[in-house]
Amino acid sequence: xxxxxxxxxxxxxxxxxxxxxxxxxxxxxxxxxxxxxxxxxxxxxxxxxxxxxxxxxxxxxxxxxxxxxxxxxxxxxxxxxxxxxxxxxxxxxxxxxxxxxxxxxxxxxxxxxxxxxxxxxxxxxxxxxxxxx
Length: 133
Fold this sequence. Notes:
Number of domains: 1
Largest sheet: 4 strands, antiparallel
Radius of gyration: 13 Å
Order of helices and strands: HEEHHEEH
Shape: globular
CATH class: Alpha Beta
CATH architecture: 2-Layer Sandwich
Helix content: 25-40%
Strand order of the largest sheet: 2-1-4-3
CATH superfamily: Haem-degrading domain
CATH topology: Beta-Lactamase
Strand content: 15-25%
Distance between the termini: 10 Å
Structural class: alpha+beta
C-alpha cells in the first residue's frame, strides 16, 4: 500500500476511538494525507470543541514533517535551530499527539492527530491508532 485510502483511515480512527474509550477520555481524531489534507475525522461525543483544531494541526505537523509532533517540539524550544516553526504552514503543533502513518515499506502515508486529553493520553491514543495501518 502506498496511499492512504478512506478504508484505512477509518480503521485508524476506529482503533483510536477504542483506545480513548478504554481510558475514558472523549477525543478528536484526524487522519490526513502526506500533504496535510484531511482524509477522515472523528469527534467523540463530549470531546472539547477547541481540540478539533488541535487534532487537525497535530496531524498536519506530523504529515509535513514526518516525525512525532513532540519531536518537533524538542527542536523548537527558545534558542533551538527551528524556534518559531509553529508559526509556519498555517500553524503547527509542537507537543505530543501527532504521529506519521507509514506503510510496511516505510512510505509515509499521512498522519494521525489526537487531542482531547492530557498530552500523554493523546500520545497513547495516537500510538494505538497508528498500529491499525
